[in-house]
């Protein structure tokens, strides 16, 4: 299978420059419309698809981002590897604004979102023990280091519901008792859905603030977040531009098995599966459900 990189742009990142044959395309999915049209093209000779998570003009709130449609649409276009770019707050002095963190774990505190493609009529349980793709994450780290960016090789991302930022008591609890390193509002269920869709997924989080625990920093405000994203957007773009040179043009089997996550996940007996749900799973689970979808 030909490698195709899917980039999900976060707050302040609504397009991507330098794509050859760039075209915004509309993709319909059985889960509704994605956040926006998707910009397709080639970067460094490699196929790429860019989707602004909140839509151009920042239309969707973290709770209303159509996460399932976004992941389905990328899969439907042929994406094999997803790089998710996100703004985040930091709970660690050493993870300073402007730094990048390659996320390797999540604590999911979201509760208003559709979290699975599966359900009644086709039940599946994938593993999230290692929720991001180690191979793709390592390549993001390599790209960041080659560019001399300040980057942290791992970090636990606390996904909160929002849209309000945390209280100080929550911030201290996440930092001191839950062991979170960074905080944002969109990392989950995005990462979990990418796993269900058998996509390799790496999350590159850009620290924009110290949330509200830090005695020397004011409470978070959106203007400060966007200012930091703006100051560091060139670094995020450079990191993405370096990836085609690091990935091979054929998608080799993922050593961690991200691309085979559904091999033993589906519980529902073939004769008890709901044909309407199977039809919706054509892109996400077509590899394992085959003729059933
Ligand atoms: C603009 S501050 C809060 C907002 O920014 C982050 O979005 P994203 O992860 O898409 O970069 C954060 O998760 C919140 O949604
Ligand atoms: N402190 C913070 N909390 C939640 N989401 C964020 N996005 C950027 N900074 C954030």
Automatic annotation (TrEMBL):
It comes from the Bacteria. Its EC number is 2.4.2.28. Residues 5-242 form the Nucleoside phosphorylase domain. GO terms for cellular component: cytosol. The lineage of its organism: Bacteria, Pseudomonadati, Pseudomonadota, Alphaproteobacteria, Rhodobacterales. One of its GO terms (molecular function) is S-methyl-5-thioadenosine phosphorylase activity. The gene is mtnP. This is S-methyl-5'-thioadenosine phosphorylase. GO terms for biological process: L-methionine salvage from methylthioadenosine; purine ribonucleoside salvage. Keywords: Glycosyltransferase, Purine salvage, Transferase. It comes from Albidovulum inexpectatum. InterPro entries: MTAP, Nucleoside_phosphorylase_d, Nucleoside_phosphorylase_sf. Substrate binds at residues 185, 209-211. It catalyses: S-methyl-5'-thioadenosine + phosphate = 5-(methylsulfanyl)-alpha-D-ribose 1-phosphate + adenine.
């Amino acid at each position: 299978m030909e490698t195709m990189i899917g980039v999900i742009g976060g707050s302040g990142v609504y397009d991507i420059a330098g794509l050859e044959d760039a075209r915004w395309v509309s993709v319909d999915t059985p889960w509704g419309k994605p956040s926006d049209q998707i910009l397709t093209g080639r970067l460094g000779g490699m196929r790429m698809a860019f989707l602004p998570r909140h839509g151009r003009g920042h239309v969707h709130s973290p709770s209303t981002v159509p996460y399932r449609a976004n992941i389905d649409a990328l899969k439907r276009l042929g994406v094999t590897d997803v790089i998710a770019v996100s703004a985040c707050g930091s709970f660690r002095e050493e993870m300073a604004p402007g730094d990048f963190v390659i996320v390797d774990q999540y604590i999911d505190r979201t509760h208003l979102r559709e979290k699975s493609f599966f359900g009644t009529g086709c039940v599946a349980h994938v593993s999230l023990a290692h929720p991001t793709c180690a191979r793709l994450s390592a390549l993001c780290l390599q790209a960041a280091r080659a560019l001399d960016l300040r980057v942290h090789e791992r970090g636990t991302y606390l996904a909160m519901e929002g849209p309000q930022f945390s209280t100080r008591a929550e911030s201290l609890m996440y930092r001191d008792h839950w062991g979170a390193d960074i905080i944002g509002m969109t990392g989950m269920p995005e990462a979990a859905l990418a796993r269900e869709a058998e996509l390799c997924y790496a999350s590159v989080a850009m620290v924009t603030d110290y949330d509200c625990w830090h005695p020397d920093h004011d409470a978070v405000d959106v203007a400060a977040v966007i200012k930091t994203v703006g100051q560091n957007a060139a670094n995020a773009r450079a990191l993405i531009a370096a990836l085609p040179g690091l990935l091979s043009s054929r998608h080799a089997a993922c050593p961690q098995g991200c691309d085979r996550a559904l091999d033993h996940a589906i519980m529902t007996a073939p004769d008890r599966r709901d044909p309407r749900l199977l039809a919706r799973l054509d892109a996400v689970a077509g590899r394992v459900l085959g003729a059933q979808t």
